[in-house]
Amino acid sequence: GRQKLNAMVAANFSNEYVLYEDAYTSLMNAQGVIREQFNYNQYLYETTLTTLGQISYSMRDYDMLSYNIMYVNNTEDIYRKRDGMDAEGKELMGSNSIYHIYSLLNNQLTGKHEFFGRRLFTDWQFSYGRTTSDEPDRRQVMFEKNMDGTMSLFKLNQQETMRYFGELFEDEWNGEVKAKYTLNKSDTPDFIQVGVSLRDKSRDFYSANFYYDVKNIYPIVTDVYDTEGYLNSENLMNGSITIDKNSQRRNKYYADAKIAAGFIDFEYYPIKNLLISGGVRYEHSKQSVDYWTDGGSPERAKLDANDFFPALSLKYTLNGSRNLRLSVSRTITRPSFLEMAPFEYQESYGGITSRGFAGIKNGYNTNIDLRYEYFNKDGDLFSIGAYYKHLEDAIENILEYSGSLMQSYRNVDKGVAAGVELELRKKLTKELKVDFNASYIYTHISLPEGGTYTDRSRALQGASPYLINLDVNYAPQFGKERKGSFSLVYNVQGPRISSVGIGGVNNVMEETFHSLDFVGTYDLNSRMKLKFQVKNLMNQKQKFSQKVADTGKKETVEYYKKGLSLGIGFSMDF
User: What are 65-114's pLDDT values in tens digits?
Assistant: First the structure.
């Protein structure tokens, strides 16, 4: 009859090779002394599998039930060869093999229903998802360069020749029910909507290190890639190599987050050209991380909050193609489990160590946005907007030095972010169009005197002062069915703070970065299409720098090239 069944299945697999040649990383203290520095080549092979299934059924004209399932699996196989110096001044060469497996399985059941002559609408959804991250066997061997040009195993301690295993499981439940009642039957009806939502997310993380004691073997090392001649089962069996399994309580943590919310919102036209929309959301949230200190004592970091988040938006239509918009809202930025868990993670010997901060707090933002926009039937668009954000307890990535450099996270008391954004889309001819977007962003963080931060005032970490995007598209027609589309896409990102320095260590700055991509498609006919792309045509070095506190001199502490990416594809519709 009038019932309808819809079903869809999709699958996609892609892989990619990425090569970083002649990359460089170092760690510098407040006096400008390089504590570690390594040049490296990195070889990455990445795969991505995405599958999606959906089935939906309409029971009446205005009822719909739907079930969706999605599975994503991503792997990264990395080999890194490093050559440099550690904090003790030892000249070293390192061999690192790293393998990551990430997966996501998500199930969602949704329903839509209408009642009372299409005046009352209800939506509900329930979902369960599991995310996993597995690092099943990271391998590291460090070699020391000898005076005669040969190499030997580095034996300062057990941290150099090792294997690492880490597992993460995260389960998330979500549910939401909302009901909308329309107050009239116009083309743009006024309505009021109420709803409730629940979210429950838990994480279980565990890791173990296996340290190899290699003090009793003296291999002649000729090839850092080949360690089978001495790191083998024979030397394990005869006792030449012993293994210390380090699986302390501090190497794991458990985390949980629960959010219960209720909300009400509306849309109302007091006059034909003016739309007023808004609402308020109440949230009761709890977030905790159970962890163990370095001494093995159990601790808990927790956040417990009751918050109201109001929002109001005004849209005034000057005529059919011009709008003026104003919006005001309050939002929240919650720390991730990783930012909250005081668990130390170091991917390679001599590299930076990251550690969460148990005292991290929620960040809150008050937002004001004003925008003018113009558009026409040809697809041209012009808009200019300004915004202001007042930030409370903003979360930042920091860099501190206490014997060794550590990356962590902190809140700053107060800050502001304000900016202007211009967007232009113009069809120059039937076949040629230009998209342009530019943003100027001002951010300012004031810090108290006598605090741990190196600066007294600065920009917000992660915020560039300007962003520019330009897309030039040429789309010629070569016949009734043959046509092409060719685009040059340019982007520039201004300099920004990558990590904030504290305790006398200066900020690490990510320098200005330019990129240029070319993307083209050619329709052979109505069913067959060719696609080709060239990404990162400029292949610019991405650089990170840091000022020496004593001299003010800027030093490059890291750089790498992302490389040029070429791709060609063919598709056919049946």
Answer: 999 999 999 999 999 999 998 888 889 998 999 999 999 999 999 999 99
Q: Hey, what are 198's tokens?
A: 């629940």
Tell which residue, 153, 139, 25, has the closest CA to residue 93.
153
Collapsed DSSP state (helix, strand, coil) of residue 250:
helix
CB burial readout 483-497, b (16+ within 10 A) else e: bbbebbbbebbbbbb
Q: Residue 448 class from Cβ within 10 Å (0-12 exposed, 13-18 middle, 19+ buried)?
A: exposed
Each residue's pLDDT tens digit, 163-179: 999 999 999 999 999 99
Residues 388, 414 contacting (CB under 8 angstroms): no
This prediction's pTM? 0.85
Cα separations in angstroms, 419 against 26, 468, 492, 517, 571: 34, 13, 17, 27, 42
For the chain, the first-to-last Cα distance in angstroms comes to 28
The secondary structure of 36-90 as a DSSP string is: EEEEEEEEEEEEEEEEEEEEEEESSTT-EEEEEEEEEEEEEEEEEEEEEE-TT--
- pLDDT (average), residues 275-284: 97
